[in-house]
Design a protein that fits this description.
By secondary structure, the protein is mainly beta. Helices cover 7% and strands 36% of the residues. The strands form 15 sheets. Strands 1, 6, 7, 8, 9, 10, 11, 12, 13, 14, 15, 16, 17 and 18 form a 14-stranded antiparallel beta sheet that branches. Strands 27-28-30-33-36-39-42-45 form an eight-stranded parallel beta sheet, covered by helices on one side. A seven-stranded parallel beta sheet has the order 29-32-35-38-41-44-47. The longest helix has 10 residues. The protein is globular, with a radius of gyration of 36 Å. The N terminus and C terminus are likely disordered.
Length: 981
Amino acid sequence: MNYVRHKKTMKIAGGIFLVASLSIIFVMVKDQKSAGAEWQDFKTNYSPVVAVFGQVVEGSKTTVKVDEETGEVGFGVQGYKNNKIQLFTKMEKAIFQKPKVQGNKIKWSEVQKDVDVELHTFDGNLKEFIYIKSENAAKSFIFDLTKDFAESEQIELRDDAGMTVTAVDKKTGEELFTLDYPMAIDAKGKKIPYHYRFIDDKKIIVEAHDPKLLIDVKYPLILDPPMTVREYDELLVKIGQNGNGPGNAKDGDIVTVKPMGWPWGDMEYRDFVIIRVPKMTFEEREKFNARFKSIDDQERFRAIVNREPLPQSRTKHLDGAYIYGLDYVSLINDERVKIFKKNSDGTEEETMKDDLIEIIRNRAKVNPIIDATALNLDEIIKEKQFVLMYKKIKKGKLKLALGELPGDESVLPKEMRLTKRLEEKKSWLARALDKIIKPAKAATNTYTIGTATRNYSTMQAWEDARDAGTDIEKGECYNDSTFTAGVVITGTTGDADSYMWLTVASGNRHSGTAATGVKIALASPNLAVYVTDNYTIVEWLEVTGFSCESCNSWGIAGDYNNNSTFRYNLVHDNVYWASSIGIGHVGQGGDNSFYNNIVYSGTQVQPFTAGIFINYESGTGAHYCYNNTVYLPMSSGGSNGIIDVGSVTVLKNNLVAASVEAFSGSAAGSDYNAGSDTSAPGANSVDNVVAANTFNTVTENSENLHLKAGASSINAGVDLSATFTTDIDNQTRPTGAGTWDIGADELIVNSTPAVSSVSDTPDPVTAGNASTFSVDWSDADAGENIKVKICKTDVLSNQNCSGGYWATSTAFTTDDPEEVTYTAQEADVGTNNYYAYVCDDGGVCVASGSGTAGTFTVTVTPTATSVVDTPDPTNPGRSVSFIVDWNDTGDAVKIKVCKTNALTNQVCDGGSWASSTAFTTVDPVTLVYDVVGGDAGNTRDYAVFVCDSTGLCTTGTTGTFTVNAVSTVPNIKVRGGLRVR
């Protein structure tokens, strides 16, 4: 049922209808005005559409249908299957009642606790806004995927690594529409990437891609998972080139092809030009994303499996070259092509073509978008000349040696090519300083890679745009989403001061186990990270999805390079085939380092090559494999651990548990290794390691290859601190003989921190104000950094409060006491329990169920809603009553009727006319003042204060009452002659 490898396909089976509402759709014919409703402001070039509840409404691009009472929404592509709806969406555990409507906007309030849903419907696009209004609200949402609908049998949903979900026609491969990349934004503008996850064939969930990003957000959080008709694809086309060598993208080369709506990075709009083309199928896009391979894959397979010398490239001058290019200069001049400028508000407008080439080639400016959707793909995308000749040679139609193929050139005519990448313009002063001042060393240029408004959206775009000619070019990946494509790092001449450095931003790195940091999960299995440049660094990546039948599948590989470093990587796959290799090096080159990497396999379809493979290095250099962990369990024939073939490789502190042979081949100086058999090289190595006694967890798909207490590899390694000092968790290894552990993990016996005391102040705290929790803590490990967690329940799991938290540290600190704050809400009024926990940067926390308990009280300031004095005026000798209506949630109050508008510590500064004797919950409260003779003929001022039992008081509500000079009661003669005054 798989659509492609690592593209989860959800079958809408027999009469099942899809429901997946990350984009609920709809609109309404009635223009009901809703006073006071607040709406999201969303601008777009799509036309608003109106729909009638319960009926299918057709636009020029879409068909929609909405159920007013359930929030269920249908979405379909106009012209497909008789304009029937293809996808229905419905949020689970939600109650949709009485929507507010304004034009094409609809809003349901409180569909769940503190959750609102708002929809904006357009012809071709649906924007859904899920308001997460408080910390107590749900942060993830499940949508049903089942409904009886016959047309669904031909439609399937493809999960594109959680980043998007695409509705595909199973027979034709046509992509109809997508649930686009979901993003949440908090009240401070912080962006939290979300993703989609199928939990079975009938449900889909939208959740934060990295739950850690939900810490320290300011509510409301507004989640936006849009749905869009798939109208076109987008090409990322290189402008200029970094060099003439093999692997350098040339002017006009197509770097990647992405579906409509891809979140391009800001630098991609400067380094490349984005061109819209007619939409393709997934297979067609993968074809255009493929790189040219000069050596037949099967030749490499046979050589690797048979441990034979690898065949040398017969087209070395073309290795890594792109197959496809595009003449964007000629394209712009085509009258069928339109140019669009993207505005800051998200809208687009067509612009003139005047001076467009100069604008595109000026790197300091953001490029407009070229719309070539009116042309067919054959008119736009061209195979290069050397590729066409190569195909003829392979078919025997051209008598020419492969080595005689012409070099890789741009598809643009020579007179049109931009042969040098244009840098951003510098000021006159900056250029003068560059000439006068020679920097002591190369600069480090850091660029972000990810999908949440980063510089580059793919690793390959970063590599193609940057050239380590004079500087260090550093690409920092972020855990915004799963990367479905890898990277080929080639085409630059690196040295010790200028090189390519692919890494992961701090806080986004894995912790030595799967799904804890930045991940490459290839959409099409092959080679995830391939490096030919010298001095390159590749680190902190999780790599999976690379293994397949009949492909040259490597997780991370170096080739023909020297002095490169591959470290702190986690490489694994669920299914391994015969040619699979986790990390390694092939071809020429040497002095490369591989350390602190973990490699493991899942189910093996065939016995595969190795976890770490160093093959046929030629030259005088050596490779260094230090402190790596390889776990390859027995399955369908087994596999080898670390193989060194015909090379010079020094192996130290490597831990291997493999089903065939742990180690094969090594150079002099190899020692202090540990293996599951007796093949570990070196007199000080450890033999017959048992995986179950060595690793925390060896259960398939739940592997945790950190060392278990008592493992034979603990303190059995050699101190390599002259080369590196940390482990796979970035923990510092000890120094000295007999202190280093063998393998990527160093078992650090970490003391559990403790909470000495915790206090909260002020207590009580008024809603809307901050309460500060001060936590005194201790940790026996010197210099330990900690975070404080103030949990709502006494349950902690994976350093997170399972029942939610009141406050938490935003970063690790050594501050003692550590103070964290929480802004009290009206919903918190009353007494609230809390439990203080401390976690250190080694991942050790106060045990769950052992939090230091406390309570804090939240109050609201009381209000006097009305004050009446009666009778007014009154007579001497009579009384006046003060009737006070008040409000104070969950509290008791006293009323103070003061003579002046001044109150100190709940006592009237100028005396009182009347005052409650005890706190009461009676509302309204009536107080009485008996008029005295001195009041006769006077108007008296008063100020009423309402004070609650927590000490909070209102401001004074002022008024006056009047006492007549003499009684105004008329004389009444009672029967019997008595006169009453």
